Fold this protein.
Amino acid sequence: MTTARTLVRPAAARSRRRPSRTRRTVKRNLTAYGFLCGALICFAFFSWYPIVREVLLSFQKTNFVGEARWVGFDNFRTVLADPGFTDAWVNTAEFTLLALVVGYVIPFAIAIVLNELKHARAYLRFVVYLPVMLPPAVAVLLFKWFYDPGPGLFNQLLHAAHLPGLSWLDSTSTALISLVIVSTWMNLGSGTLIYLAALQSIPGELYEAAELDGAGLFRRIRHITIPQTRLILLVMLLLQIIATMQVFIEPYLLTGGGPEGSTVTVAYLMYQYAFNFTNFGGGGALGLMLMLVLMVFSAIYLRVSREEAR
Amino acid sequence: MRSRILATALAAALGATVAGCGGDGSGGKDTAPLDAGTKVSITVGCMPAKSQAAQRKEWLEDVAAFQKLHPNITIDGKDAFPCIDPNTFQAKLAGGQMEDVYYVYFTDVRGIIANGQAADITPYIGQSKQYPNLDPAVEKVFKDGGKVYGLPRQNYSMGLFYNRTLFKKAGLDPDRPPATWAEVREDAKKISGLGGGTVGYAEFSAKNQGGWHFATSIYSQGGDMVDASGKKAAFNSPQGKAVLQNLKDMRWTDDSMGSKQLLVDADVQRMMAAGKLGMYLGAPDNATALVDQFKGKYEDYGMAPIPGSAGTLMGGDGYLFSPKASPEKIKAGLMWLDYYALTPGQGQLNYARAARDGRPVGIPQPKLFGQNAVGEKDRQLRADAANLPVANFKPYEDAYSKVPGKLEPPQAQQLYTILDSVVQAVLTRRDANIDQLLADAQKKADAALARSGS
């Protein structure tokens, strides 16, 4: 009966009701739209606008005073002809790879140990997270002293163990790994806590069953821990690649790109172009190249995250 | 998709706004003095920060006195410490936040002028009464193609900065500092022989400062960074090799340069203030930095002309004008700089007031004027008010006019980046091949100079 009445309602009445329904929907979601607007404005100004501006900049020559001039691919040609271009990419790739070997495995291993501990877990978690609370510049300067080939802590420890000291930041063969160590130390806490959260979500019965079947620690890690945390491990791997490929603070504060350009990364070269050589187009071109490479990893990351959500 | 469209639209709108702000600002041909009835307000960079209480007090006194003389002009000082930061300089310019009269280092002047980021002030330069009295070498820093773009505030030439206390401890005469690079090597050996981590001689080698000091050193040996055309590198020369060979010998044969390298100015100053370093290349105002920032003592330091003395690098700072500044603002800015920076007995050159305020007086810097009456007056006023052991700087001051001051090369920062690596190689690798390093660096430098079209 109700349906029949609705069906015979005049068209004018229907059109009067429709806006009120929309209004109701809008009203109901007003708070959500408000939050969305705030986020959109923030992203537009602080992320999307700089990205678009950076892309435009890479095809322009500008002094930020007069009108910018379009120069096509000239900026890309300039940076590609730079003898330091290939070295910067090689250094970045090496840093990323070393950071994966050192910085990816260690936090996971620490998380497993912390998860296995029965006592002082909260205290140790705090200790592991402590370096994250230190401002990066302070942490880097602390390591500057650790790495001092003379009175530095690391060489003192090596000497105490009757081992020869190393040149650390002063040698082309050890400078990059020295930066990786700093970077790993600074980011250790966050990674460890994320892994720890993932480990704690694994049902305890699985371990109990494995123990009853006689599985040792390493078999439990191999057959339970790693498969159960596979997705978070993959996500962390991709995030780490994206973060470490943009490494800048460590070479900027510790080595200035030296010795002999062995720690000049793509981000550092970008900085040199923009701020030392006032060639913003060149810096923009390098930034765009790096962004395209990182977009590949970001796409994989998004796919993996979606899979994890399912 | 919608967000992408929104971002593009926003970017286009904002980009258009930024681009629309441009203008050449080259000014007209107005040489008349500023009309006393015209109200002008100018922003000026490098007002001393609050942490520099005495200097700030003096600045504010000067502004008040100047505004009393010229009631139509308002000086709006902008403070910052340090006065210039390469990371924010371009952003300020892009965002339209650059002061009307902005602060620069000598190093950056050429690049800024070449980028069209400074106003041509030639038609208005008559507003500066002291301009004709400037040392021609200093005046040249702010000129390009016959046009004038700015005025200096401080200037210096590089010399040998040394620790008199360590000289005495090492059995050396602090009143007879080394005059040649061979003597530097000998003295460095004796100072590092004191042990306890003492370093005889230190050299910068990171963040382009290695290249900068290489330029200073090659000038001291009579060499040059680029050829007369400015389009080819000239550092792959016997003088360039001598600079590097000397460093290599001190670092590896004598072990008088310490084991830690990739040093920058702050590292070296820290070593000097801690009494652990004998010598390094620097400017007279290093003494102030050592005392103010690193708690050193003036009486510990002395300064000599650069070893070799065939030439030395000039440095300093000054002011350029925003390309968007109106002729009135440029005139007012020139009048202010004339009052504050370039008139002996006034502003920054009021040594008696500085001494009364407890500030150090007596360091032979700046040396803005040539050998003329104004220069003589400035030197006399400084000597009269000196409260520092000025005799420690006498060797440097006596030789000042005899050592030719040279400017930085074109594309200075790019050349310095290239040479940083060369200096680093010599200081960090025992087997560094100097010939090969210089040949490779020359190729890179030639390409950089060709790319820039300088």
Confidence is low (pLDDT under 50) at residues 1-28 of chain B. Chain B touches chain A through 52 residues (CB under 8 Å).
